[in-house]
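To the wet lab folks,

You asked to see what we're planning to order before we commit. Fair enough. Below is the target structure as tokens, and below that is the sequence we designed to fit it. If anything looks off to you, flag it before the synthesis order goes out.
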């Protein structure tokens, strides 16, 4: 009998998808549930709504809005922030050089500093005439839905190389008029980028090679995103769309730096689980600097690029890698302590109306407004904070228009991670050329919304049939973030 009851209880537990936070007591759990439940009162702002990054949220505007640490750092932590910032801005050079602690760049590379891409800690943009500087073109070939690095060019196209070596290619972008949604909003002027790789120096790409352009995302608040409990992410996962809302978010499972399976949180396709791995991958693939995560000091050079291996590496006698873990950890601390900016105009009438439109259109199905971070987070200033990132960190099919395509134009992957929306209104103040969406094609926030399709189809249909004339209010809300 007892076994039977237990069996039934267990069955219920699993079929209800109950995800329990093991960092909280029962009373705390109830409290958290209450403060993170979605509001239905749009007459006034919610408590603490302006403090996107919790109690330590900075309140500074302007060009450097994304470059401040949380207010509540200790003296020692402030020092570490400054050291980490120096490494984030540091310009690496080719080896051998007289400054052995800064060499090892390349041989092939996309940029010489983290900051060149994550402009003022904000997002990048697509290039005009110049070589791509704050965007990365990933390449690879899918075999049975698994993406493998391209045999010749590796994981991404490097548009730069150290003296004496040819960079991999030049890039030309054409912007093509799109009729998408023109039948609903005539004044809409959506254009999508089409890429031509000219002068591929190491051979042509096979036609089934997938091209995936990504502008560098902003890096504010990433420590808080790392501090969201797994169970809060898994609770929103709905792989087979069992609740029938047309949305089937997937928590991507990836390896961390020790080979353990974890939920992917960073990158436009949630390819890395934490900031340490993300930093390692960036040093290795974007700059050609080896480290304990990405151990190859020739970076993204492949066997087919034998010219690469004639150059010396930046490894000196006392270190195993070009970038040691001490430097990695300082950069990770820097990223962890970058605060999202305080929101503006939260109580303005139009902003509240826009918020209502956002909630009613179920943008919140993917852009989850708020969380309370883990009590086990790495630093005090990240622990048990009510935060407002507007992401579920899950992957969603966003439709054919936004999908990656191969050289022949066939769709290869339609899934993207919901990006956090905090800081959206500051993006163009920080970088006036900032683009929106993974590839930066959207010139404005509203264009980004209009490109939504796939799992967001119904959300957009509702928005356009009910609030077509109030899109300015939605925009005001998004710009207040
Ligand atoms: C050549 C440009 C470039 C350079 C240099 C670069 N990044 Fe990035 N970064 C990107 C792009 C593009 C992405 C998105 C990558 C993806 O989705 O695969 C990204 C993603 C990230 C993210 C994840 C943000 C999020 O919310 O998903 C972090 C954190 C990050 N980079 C940190 C760094 C650090 C630290 C360095 C220096 C060690 C660095 N980056 C160097 C372009 C760059
Ligand atoms: C099915 C999930 C889903 C729904 C519903 C959804 N979004 Fe998104 N949103 C995403 C994803 C995924 C992206 C990134 C797509 C890309 O980069 O190509 C995104 C990107 C955005 C961006 C651009 C952010 C940036 O950093 O560039 C904005 C703005 C945005 N969404 C607003 C909205 C609004 C407003 C609604 C409701 C009308 C909405 N979204 C509904 C998943 C969703």
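Sequence we intend to order:
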């Amino acid at each position: 009998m007892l076994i039977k009851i237990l069996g039934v209880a267990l069955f219920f537990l699993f079929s209800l998808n109950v995800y329990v936070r093991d960092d909280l007591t029962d009373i705390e759990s109830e409290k958290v549930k209450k403060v993170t439940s979605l509001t239905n009162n749009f007459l006034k702002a919610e408590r603490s709504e302006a403090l996107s990054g919790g109690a330590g949220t900075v309140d500074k505007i302007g060009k450097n809005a994304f470059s401040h640490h949380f207010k509540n750092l200790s003296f020692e932590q402030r020092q570490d922030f400054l050291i980490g910032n120096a490494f984030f801005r540091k310009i690496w050079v080719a080896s051998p050089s007289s400054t052995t602690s800064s060499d090892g760049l390349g041989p092939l590379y996309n940029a010489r500093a983290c900051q060149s891409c994550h402009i003022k800690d904000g997002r990048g943009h697509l290039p005009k005439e110049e070589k791509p500087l704050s965007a990365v073109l990933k390449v690879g070939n899918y075999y049975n839905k698994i993406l493998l690095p391209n045999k010749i060019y590796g994981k991404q196209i490097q548009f730069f190389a150290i003296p004496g070596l040819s960079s991999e290619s030049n890039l030309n972008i054409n912007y093509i008029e799109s009729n998408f949604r023109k039948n609903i909003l005539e004044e809409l002027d959506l254009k999508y980028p089409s890429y031509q790789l000219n002068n591929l120096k190491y051979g042509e790409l096979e036609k089934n090679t997938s091209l995936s352009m990504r502008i560098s995302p902003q890096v504010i608040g990433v420590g808080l995103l790392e501090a969201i409990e797994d169970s809060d992410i898994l609770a929103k996962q709905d792989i087979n769309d069992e609740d029938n809302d047309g949305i089937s978010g997937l928590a991507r499972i990836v390896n961390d730096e020790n080979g353990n399976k974890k939920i992917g949180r960073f990158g436009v396709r949630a390819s890395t689980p934490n900031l340490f791995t993300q930093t390692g991958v960036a040093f290795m693939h974007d700059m050609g600097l080896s480290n304990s995560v990405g151990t190859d000091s020739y970076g993204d050079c492949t066997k087919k690029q034998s010219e690469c291996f004639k150059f010396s590496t930046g490894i000196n006698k006392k270190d195993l890698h070009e970038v040691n873990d001490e430097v990695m950890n300082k950069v990770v601390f820097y990223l962890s302590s970058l605060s999202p900016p305080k929101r503006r105009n939260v109580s303005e009438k139009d902003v509240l109306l826009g918020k209502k439109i956002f909630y009613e259109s179920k943008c919140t199905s993917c852009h989850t407004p708020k969380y309370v971070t883990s009590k086990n987070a790495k630093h005090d200033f990240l622990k048990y904070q009510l935060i407002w990132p507007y992401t579920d960190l899950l992957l969603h099919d966003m439709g054919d228009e936004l999908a990656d395509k191969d050289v022949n134009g066939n769709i290869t992957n339609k899934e993207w991670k919901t990006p956090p929306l905090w800081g959206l209104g500051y993006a163009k103040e920080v970088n006036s050329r900032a683009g929106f969406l993974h590839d930066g094609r959207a010139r404005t926030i509203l264009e980004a919304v209009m490109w939504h399709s796939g799992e967001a189809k119904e959300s957009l249909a509702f928005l356009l049939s009910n609030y077509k004339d109030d899109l300015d209010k939605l925009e005001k809300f998004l710009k207040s973030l």
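Structural context that might help your review: The mean pLDDT is 95. The longest strand covers residues 135-143.

Thanks,
Computational group
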